[in-house]
């Protein structure tokens, strides 16, 4: 497996980890005061506020970012583009996604948008390697 392929796996797991932050962060709460409800996860998520609500939004954005990133890696590798360049750009994408999650949780909207834009640009850069 290439580094880029491992990055695809990481990108697929990051949204799950992100929502886990919101769910795990509610473990100390009572059922009536906001603890995660596995029987009704969507209504539970709709009632969230603050950083937990932003964690759910970051999870959704993580899933939205996947198609372009995965397609870019696959197409660049199928085209036999320089694997080192693909790997480096894929690592950059993962690093940017980690920063994105952090700034999203911290409610830093402008920085979040800049980091998101850089993440999209890294996926496009991989895509253009093909």
Overall description:
This protein is an all-alpha fold and 130 residues long. It contains five helices and no strands. It has one domain (3-129): Up-down Bundle (Four Helix Bundle (Hemerythrin (Met), subunit A)), CATH 1.20.120.550. It has helices at 3-24, 41-46, 50-78, 83-105, 109-129. The radius of gyration is 17 Å and the shape is elongated. The model has no long low-confidence stretch (mean pLDDT 94).
Strand content range = under 5%
What characteristic shape results from the CA principal axes? Answer: elongated
Number of helices: 5
The run of helices and strands is HHHHH
Biggest sheet descriptor: none
Indicate the CATH class: Mainly Alpha
CATH domain topology: Four Helix Bundle (Hemerythrin (Met), subunit A)
Low-confidence stretches: none
Portion of residues in helices? over 70%
Q: Overall mean pLDDT score?
A: 94
Number of strands: 0
Number of domains: 1
Helical/strand content category: mainly alpha
Q: Please, what is the CATH homologous superfamily?
A: Membrane associated eicosanoid/glutathione metabolism-like domain
Which secondary structure elements does this structure contain, and how are they paired or packed?
Layout: H1 3-24, H2 41-46, H3 50-78, H4 83-105, H5 109-129
Helix pairs in contact: 1-3, 1-4, 3-4, 3-5, 4-5
